[in-house]
Design brief:
Length: 198
């Protein structure tokens, strides 16, 4: 099997538009990427920005923007691609990773599509971790051509000290309205009463 050629930190700093294609947001990849960027950070801040536009045979256009920045306060890598077809349809994808000087890290990705008939959809996910714990959140929203909107999101936060977690869910629909719920779990994954706020 032919080994995969992974871009190096130097490649990403020199050609940050690659960020739109190389960030695959598994937890291990996010940690590795953030760690590599942090280790590569020079004493003075180092930043690269790249923009390019591709014109395709079908008349569509894709614009890429990539930013890679590293320094004593941490590192950030972002990529964004916008595609339009000239007929009112467009899509945007974005991805990013960041790591602070104290070791906290976060990754994010999102995708939005807008159609000529007025309909649109969006999905996004965020994952963050530091010494206090971790958070994962993902959700999306859709808008039909008639303007009807539905959306939903699930977020889980986990304490590093106790292993306890809380999962919140929210949703909205024209017929159901806004709904929210929260469930708490102990370190073994067993549901438990959520602590009350003081």
């Amino acid at each position: 099997m032919t080994p995969l050629n992974r871009p190096t930190v130097h490649d990403l700093l020199q050609r940050p538009a690659m960020a739109a294609g190389v960030l695959m947001f598994s937890a291990s990849m996010a940690v590795l990427l953030a760690a590599l960027l942090a280790l590569a950070a020079p004493a003075d801040a180092n930043a690269r920005t790249h923009r390019s536009v591709e014109h395709h045979a079908d008349g569509s256009t894709t614009a890429h923007t990539g930013v890679a920045r590293s320094g004593p306060n941490g590192a950030v890598l972002r990529g964004r691609a916008v595609t339009t077809d000239g007929r009112g349809n467009a899509s945007v994808t974005s991805r990013g990773a960041a790591m602070g000087a104290q070791g906290g890290m976060a990754v994010r990705q999102g995708s939005t599509t807008r159609n000529a008939d007025g309909s649109a959809s969006h999905s996004g996910a965020v994952s963050a971790e530091n010494a206090q714990g971790s958070l994962q959140s993902n959700g999306g929203a859709t808008r039909n051509a008639d303007g009807t909107v539905t959306q939903g999101r699930t977020t889980t936060a986990t304490s590093a000290a106790t292993g306890n977690s809380v999962q919140t869910q929210s949703s909205y629909g024209k017929d159901t309205g806004l709904a929210r719920s929260a469930t708490c779990y102990d370190a073994s994954g067993t549901a438990m009463p959520c602590p009350t706020r003081p």
